[in-house]
Amino acid sequence: MRQVCVLGDGQLGAMLRDAGRRLGLYVETLDPESSDALPESAPRRHAIITAEREHWPDNGFTRNLQAEPGWLNASAFAALTDRQSQKTLLDNLQLPTAPWCPVTVDANLHSLRTALGGEFLLKRRRGGYDGRGQWRSESAGEEGMPDWHDVAIAERCIDFSTELSLIGARDAQGNMVFYELTENFHAGGILQISLMQPGRFARWQREAELYHARLMSHLQYQGVLAIEFFVTDAGLLINEVAPRVHNSGHWTQAGASIDQFEMHLRAISGLPLVTPMQPGCSVMVNVIGRAVDPACLALPGTRLHWYGKQERAGRKLGHLNFFHPDAARAAEWLRRLPLDVTFAESRERALRALVGPNQAREADMAL
Ligand code: AMP
């Protein structure tokens, strides 16, 4: 049996393990924080080595792992894990992205506003996720800008109508497949809800795939990669790229014939890559901060994926998936889901996307 090792043992790794079991691949997840040496076991010497995260501590274990012949996507990690080199690569490949500049030692609020033509965000170059490691210039008070010189980039605040992501995969031969574009609803920088409705973003699908393909080909990438986009009046702008399976692709577990975890394993282990069937509407809702309300499980069609983590404010603890061929049924499920008030705005926007403003309003009145 072919062995796959995954750097990282969070929920993404666990879901890759499950997918491996289905495919008959042995997938082992490795915690880079707790190991200090790579055991010299023979099978691992021949393993395919992938990652479920793009940041890891620099220690003997991670250095050994990256020196293994089976370590994949070294150049992608080198280019994408630092926002500054990621943005530079996107510019070099002429992939549209939010205007940005480095935060040099002499940069200040005024110089950055001038350089970017208005309000901007500071984003830490490494380690920021779920909106962490970000600061908005509109919020600048007395104390001004944080001292993130050299450790952040500045990016113009984008006026977008919605946020989309495209999950795609490439194998060693250069074959590529893509899922349908997913619409994502965030609050406070954290993804709350993802929606996939076949054909809804047909207008953008081809363009998004061309950008995605250009990036994966350039990096000779193997596996699943996710690109997040802003939809603006001027077209798609890339927000960020994640060289791994992604939260906005979790809906594929219920709504696609091959989910993103299986797709990743197929792509890295030489199994056939085929475009999955995605025949209806999929809704994914993250469970954030607090244990899931058991009433969610009373709604037919609910599929819960629980990560077994301790409750903590803002932490993703699990997710709920729902799939139905009919958008109205998907909306009905989302309406009835007992969610915390912090989801109100995302849910409202997602309902509008699913059934249009009138039906979303009628449903609100009925609640
Ligand atoms: P990120 O961690 O870069 O994905 O950012 C988290 C969220 O912050 C995004 O999903 C957007 O909702 C928002 N955001 C990030 N960059 C920008 C930007 N340049 N302009 C406006 N909103 C942004």
- Spatial gap, N to C terminus: 53 Å
Given helix and strand content, the structural type is: alpha+beta
Helix content: 25-40%
| Residue share in β-strands | 25-35%
Question: Helix-strand pattern, N to C?
Answer: EHEHEHHHEHEEEEEEEHEEHHEEEHH
Compute the gyration radius: what is it?
21 Å
Uncertain regions spanning at least 5 consecutive residues: none
Bound molecules: adenosine monophosphate
Helix segment count?
11
Shape descriptor reads globular
**CATH architectural grouping of the largest domain:** 2-Layer Sandwich
The CATH homologous superfamily of the largest domain is called ATP-grasp fold, B domain
The number of domains is: 3
The count of DSSP E runs of length 2 or more, i.e. the number of strands, is 16
Can you identify the CATH class of the largest domain?
Alpha Beta
Query: What kind of sheet is the major sheet?
Result: 9 strands, antiparallel
Say what the CATH topology of the largest domain is: D-amino Acid Aminotransferase, Chain A, domain 1
Mean pLDDT metric: 93
